[in-house]
Amino acid sequence: MRKICVVTGTRAEYGLLYWLMREIEADNDLELQIIATGQHLSPEFGLTYKTIEKDGFDISAKVEMLLSSDTPVGIAKAVGLGTIGFADTLDRLKPDIMVLLGDRFEALSAAQAAMLLRIPIAHLHGGEATEGLIDEAIRHSITKMSLLHFVSANEYKNRVIQLGESPDRVFNFGAIGLDNIKRLKLLSKSELEKAIPFKFRKHNFLVTYHPVTLSGESPEIYVNNLVKAFSAFDDVGIIFTQANADTSGRLINDLFKNYVKKHNDRMVFVNTLGQLKYLSTIKYVDAVVGNSSSGILEVPSFNVPTINIGPRQKGRLMADSVLSCADSPEEILTALNRAISEPFKTFVKTTKSPYGNGGVSERIVEVLKNADLSPDVIMKHFFDLEKSII
Fold first, then answer.
1. What does each C-alpha distance from 169 to 45, 207, 266, 367 come to in angstroms?
2. Which of 300, 343, 342, 302 is nearest to 324 (CA)?
3. What does the pLDDT average to over 207-216?
4. What does the alpha-carbon distance between residue 271 and residue 278 come to, in Å, rounded to a whole number?
5. Where are the alpha helices (DSSP H) in the chain?
6. Which of the 8 DSSP states describes residue 188?
7. Among residues 62, 59, 26, 27, which one has the least CA distance to residue 42?
């Protein structure tokens, strides 16, 4: 049996990988291995490895790597700890292929260890651009360490090939997160209100805001600009989600928590929603607000507006339902008002996502199952684009 090792470091990432893991598990010719790391093992983020176990998966190994510090030095040290932990774990598990998603520092640790141990890597969501983040460099680095590439759009496929990867190993099946939208039975509004708990009002926003890791500035001013824009609404309901374990993520969480305390009759801060509650919430809000990739990749499939604030997602393909704005309170307020306007809500109902229609997981499994992993294939050659005459 071919052993496929899936690495997950956050609950959001696990939600995206869920159906892929189910497809691997169900295939009689494949053995699923799971490594939980990063936020999954942190009490601060809810020890969400328990969610993986509750879903019936067996976790093959846990790699501790998070420190109590979310400073740049702390994150750099966490990458080092993770690489050490993954080296020992992968040497024990000996997978045939390791699956990584995205661009987080946990994935960088895993990729470094796997590359040096000569374990082929299958990378999801390569070729994308997020110019406001250090994740940009991490994503492209993982691309160069990977053998198989599963991208979410043709533009990203071309970019991965531009990085020197062979076209016959780059596959555009769309965004894997759309599988959840197609396959999960989402909660009704009343079920969701009990589960969060939260009482929806006439207008409601879901806020998912993370650090802009390349800005070099404290996120406090940007969070204050966002809540200043919200102050123009007297009766809006707001659900805030927890920021990632990135540099200054704790500061963002504390600022939002303090804001919610002053308006707890109509606002709530949630440590972790998980995919079911998160996707269900999108159905019932007027807009998803912040700078998360989910606002770009998944939210448009619900025909719900996204307000994309600041430079964090700059460079990504965006549906017409995405309103991008600067992080000033005036521009954010303008975007909020447009999102809840009837003309724009009607327009959004006609928009389409550039990231496909789901059905991604089973197609990825077929490639993982049948990919040639012989030594001459694993020894990659740089694919040169046709040279231009200058």
1. 36, 37, 49, 9
2. 300
3. 80
4. 12
5. 11-26, 49-54, 72-93, 105-116, 135-145, 154-162, 178-183, 189-195, 220-230, 249-262, 274-284, 294-297, 329-339, 342-348, 361-370, 375-378
6. P
7. 62
Q: Can you tell me the distance from the alpha carbon of 66 to that of 75, in angstroms, rounded to the nearest whole number?
A: 8
Q: What is the pLDDT of residues 221-259, one digit of tens each?
A: 999 999 999 999 989 999 999 987 777 888 999 999 999
Query: Torsions phi, psi of 4, nearest 5?
Result: -110, 120
Q: Which two tokens stand for residue 7?
A: 């690495």
Q: What is the rounded distance in angstroms from the CA atom of residue 22 to the CA atom of residue 41? A: 22
Mean pLDDT, residues 263-285 taken together? 93
- 3-state secondary structure (DSSP) of residue 204: strand
State the angle between helix axes of 135-145 and 105-116 in degrees (0 to 180), rounded to the nearest 10: 20
Strand 61-63 vs strand 97-101: parallel, antiparallel, or unpaired? unpaired
Residues 6+ apart with CB under 8 A from 118: 378
Mean pLDDT of the chain: 93
- 148 φψ region: left (φ > 0), alpha (ψ -120 to 50), beta (else): beta
Cα separation of 134 and 79, whole Å? 13
Q: Identify whether the C-beta of residue 39 lies closer than 8 Å to the C-beta of residue 9.
A: yes
62-82 in b/e form (b: 16+ CB < 10 A) is ebebbeeebeeeebeebeeeb
Task: Compute the average pLDDT of residues 204-217.
Answer: 84
Say if strands 170-172 and 204-208 run parallel, antiparallel, or are unpaired.
Answer: unpaired
DSSP state string for 66-106 = --S--SHHHHHHHHHHHHHHHHHHHHHH--SEEEEESS-HH
Give the model confidence (pLDDT) of 283-323 as tens digits. Answer: 999 999 999 999 999 999 999 999 999 988 888 999 999 99
As given in the structure block, the two tokens for residue 375 are: 């030594």
Q: What pTM did the predictor assign?
A: 0.87
Predicted confidence (pLDDT) per residue in 55-96, tens digit: 999 999 999 998 878 888 999 999 999 999 999 999 999 999
Gap between the Cα atoms of 89 and 92, Å rounded: 5
Is the pLDDT at 390 greater than 60, yes or no? no
- Whether the CB-CB separation of 223 and 192 falls below 8 Å is answered with no
What's the mean pLDDT in 101-129?
A: 96
**What whole-number distance in Å separates Cα of residue 207 and Cα of residue 253?**
12
